[in-house]
Amino acid sequence: MKVLDLLRKLYFYWSDFRFGVKSFFSTNCYQFRDVMMVGAGFFGEKDVPLWKYCCMLMYRLLGYYQLVMAVAKTGLSICEGDNFLDILGSLLVSLFMLAVEFKVFMFKHYRQSIRQIQSFFDGRYGHSGDYRFDIRMYRRANSVTWKAFLAMYLLICCDQVLIWIPNSAQERMFGIPTRFADYGSRISKTMQGMYLCSLAYFWGCRYFCCSSIVMPLLVKLRADLAIVQHGFEMIRINTDSRWESNALLWGYLKKLFNRTVKQHFRILRHVNLMQPAVNNTYATVYYSNMGLVALAVFLAIQSGMTFMSFCLIITAIGFMVECYSWCFLIGLIQDTMMEISSTASQLAFLPPHSPKHHSEYVQWRTSLMIVQLNASQMDWFRCGNIFFISTERFGELCMIVYRFAAFLMKFA
C-alpha cells in the first residue's frame, strides 16, 4: 500500500507540474523566443546597462571568430589538397554560417515592419460572436508557438552537446586548421575551445531567428482568419432561421456583419505589410536548405555510425521540418481563406431583396463580394515572388535534396 500511495503522489505531483508548465507557456509563449534571441546575440530590450552591452559584444565577437576560423579552414583545406570529405565538411560549416548571416540580414531589413505586425497581432483579439471558440483558437495558437520554440531550442542544445563529444569526425569537421598547431599546444587548445564552446548554440539561434519571429505571426494570422470565418458562419447560422419571422433583421445583421468585415479588412492590410518579409525570408530558408541538407546527408552517410553523423542527421531533419512548417502554416492560411470565400458567397445569396431595405441589401452584397474576391486570392505568399509556397513545393525540395545527395555519392 505504501508503494501505491507513493506512486499515486508522484503521479499527482507530475500532473501538477505538467499542468503548471503548460499553463505558464500557454500564456507566456514567447519565453523561448526571447532566450533564443539573446543566444543569437540580439538584445531583448532597448536600453541595456554597460556591462550587459560589453558581455553581448564579447559574445558576438566570439561568434565572428568562429566564422573567420571556419572560412579559413575551408580555404586552407582546398589549398592544401585535403581529403574530399574533409573539404566538404569544412565547406558545409562555412556555407551554413554564411547562410545564417544572410538570414540575419533579412531579419534586420524587415525588423521595422515585423514589429508593426507584432504590435497588431499582440494588441488585439478577434471576435466571432462565439467567445469559447475565440479563446480556444488563441490558446491553440499559443500552444503551437511555444512547442515550436521548444523544439528549435532542444535541437540547438542537442547539437551543441554532440559537438562537445570528442571523436575523429568532430576533429575533421570542427577542428581548427592544422597550421595553428605550430604555435604550441596551449594556444591551439585555447583556440579550439573558443571555436567549439558556443558554435552550435550561437549559430543555431541565429539560424532560427527569422523563423522564431515570422512563424508565430503566421500562427496568429491563421487564428485570426479562423475567427473571422467563424464570425461569418455565426451570422449565417443565427440569421438563417429568422428571415421569415423577423423580416430581414438588418439592425442585428449590421452590428455583427460590420464588425466581422472590419476585422477581415484590418487583417488584409497587415497581410500586405507582411508579404515581403514572409516571401523573401522563406526564399532564404528554401534555397539554403537545398544545399545544406544535401551536404549534411551525404557527409552523414559517408561518416558511418558516429556521433557526428547523428548530429548531422538531426540537424538536417530540423532544417527540413522548419521548411515544412512554413509550407504547412501557409497552406492552412490559404484553406481558411477559401472557407471565408465560400461562406461569404453563401451569405451573399441568403437574404431576399426588399425595397424597404434596398440600400442595406446593396451594401451587404457589395461588401461580401469584396470579401469573397480578397479571400479567393491564392498568391498571398510566394517564395521570392517566384512560385507559390505550398506543401507540394516542399515535396519538390525533398526530391532536389535527394538528387543532389545522390550526385555527390556518385561523384565521391
UniProtKB/TrEMBL annotation:
Q: What keywords would UniProt list here?
A: Membrane, Receptor, Transmembrane, Transmembrane helix
Listed transmembrane segments: 87-106, 144-165, 200-219, 284-301, 307-333
Has keyword Transmembrane? yes
The reply to whether Transmembrane helix figures as a keyword in the UniProt entry is yes
**Protein name (database record):** Odorant receptor
Q: Lineage of this protein's species? A: Eukaryota, Metazoa, Ecdysozoa, Arthropoda, Hexapoda
Gene name of the record: 23687915
